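Page header: ASSEMBLY MODEL / two components / 735 residues total.
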Amino acid sequence: MAVVREGQEVQRGQLLARADGFVSVAQHAPASGIVRRIALVPSITGKMTPGIYLEPHPGSSQEVAEGEPCDLQSASADDIIAAIQAAGIVGLGGAAFPTHVKLKPPEGKHAHTLVINGVECEPYLTTDHRVMLEHTADVYTGIRYLLKATGAQRAIIGVEANKLDAAEALRAAVPADMPVTTEVVNVKYPQGAEKMLITALLDKEVPSGGLPIDVGIVTVNVATAAEIGRLLPHGRGIQERVVTITGPAVGRKGNYRIPIGTPLRFALEQVDVSDDASRVFLGGPMMGQALSSLDIPITKGTSGFVAFTHADTDERAQEYPCIRCAYCVDACPIFLNPAQLGLLAKNREYERMADEYNLMDCFECGSCSYVCPSHIPLVQRFRVSKAIVRERKSS
Amino acid sequence: MPVTGKTLDIDTSPHIKSGASVDTIMRHVVYALLPVCAFSVYVFGLTALITLTAATLSCLLTEHLLCRWRGDRTTIGDWSVAITGILYGLTLPPALPVWMIILGGAVGVGMGKFLFGGLGYNAFNPALIGRAFLQAAFPLSMTTWFEPLAEQRFVAVPSSTFTMPFASPVYDSVSSATPLSAMKFDGDVAAAADLVMGLTSGSTGETSSLLIIAGGLYLVARKMMNWRIPVAILGTVAAFSGALYQVDPAVYPSPVFMLFAGGLMLGAVFMATDMVASPMTGLGCVLYGVLIGAMVVVIRLWGGMPEGVMYAILFANAVSPHIDRLVRPRVYGTAKRGAS
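Prediction written out in full:
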């Protein structure tokens, strides 16, 4: 809910909109400027959503308006959770789910372990890697807040084996008084999915349809933890985030700290995106969304963009019948039978897919479609099937 | 640089592919079979070359004509029927009349594959359907064997090869018993070295076990073959026949003989591993292999026929969908023996 009006002058860091419910967070001004309009803005899905158009002053200073600092020593768990909500913090891994909601365990449940997810959710993205290397101290400050907020006894940071420099940096910087360990896990997509990471680190499975808290675990992305550590001591809100911009069509690939709300087209122009970029994905190439328009704002959930030109993309290959090669069975991280599900989807047996073959457990990582030598759009069919099952269940 | 007025392509994720493709997999299986074919021609001469060529062409032609007849695009370009043709040829006696080869190829591809719906839908290995038909229709021709390493093999073709359709073939060359029938009916056991090298009489492809294993390793290295199937089959045959051999070596042949004689190696490596007709899960593949291995030993030692690989595989093909239905890995986050 907006707390500014059109034409109002705002300072960088000033509150623009406050949370209007529990599953909602605040939004702060990413730059000093003038609120031009409060109206609908295009979003990545193509839908229009309520938004605020802010015109930055040409010489917007780096000065930031600060609110009430959250003092780690004196704050209670509830104070920290409220401060995280007030700082506008959401999961920066890409899901953009409000972080404070995860920290408040449901009645009768208790968190004993905090898992800090330092595994990139997708190939091509490298934001977590840079955050771990360059904001190591913020990560630990954030973990202090998170441990206190959740009451967990210890924290484990999961890092992929191809980022040993990050694991070393984290291990070298761990404060002696903190119950935090850094563990190296295999590089295997979709290792960044929280359920996969929990299994890799703790050899525990999150029950089907459940949440990590059901096994006493809270997971937080490493960039989210760093942001908590950076913002809470100063009472600031999120104004910017680290975004990977990469792919064959990008001239200057890299990780950039970009103010929230920056138009994507503007951001791409700054990094020399080739004029024949024909595909731009929000997020990585496995689960990311292909954009139909570049005129959308970068949001808190934007972990990266991957841009390809026509020359880099294969023509859609001819679809063959399923030859039961079982590549998808071997690829599925949660041991579904995608081949069987694919046949059932073709026959529109959606209830059987859900009741007998655990369709609803699929988290749509796309590994099955990636490996399928018959080029069957498996995960694409499962998305549609899941939507149909949900709709039928609700009606 | 301005990024303006762009047309963007959209599609649903994933936006990248591993590069694996059905036709690539099938083509590599053909590559893996070529050394086996070449060695067969070396052992049996011109007649093996004619048998393999006739078998492959008859299968390709059958599929091509049936696709055309149905008004579809031909599917011979996916290489799968080429594998069927070569495998079918490798299971036949080297001097089988060409007209029988063509007939069996048409039955194998027509009934064993096309009627089921083509690639991906065949319940049985089509090559074995073709062979099973010939075994039932022409039992004598299917058990008349050509002498390996015959002197005239590169210059002359046995008269049986070009028998007129529906006429009884006349065998002029000395036909010799296969090691399995010699063992079964005469109690003779062939030398292990000859068996491993493949210098014994038998079907066109029942020759070099080493080349068959090499072909299998090539495919396993490329992840184009499930190694569990041949390992389970061969392991079961070795264990089962080994146990019997321990009980009474005078009655039962040694496990080495059992492993390297007859069509077991070809069947275990190239026939049973047909992706379409075998189970999908790791445990399912092991069970499937154990079933085949056990049946091979039972049929060979106690059945009426000297060889049982073909029937063992066809039988296991029939139960493979049921193995997949019964043996399912536990889905992440569900209780043991969860929803089914």
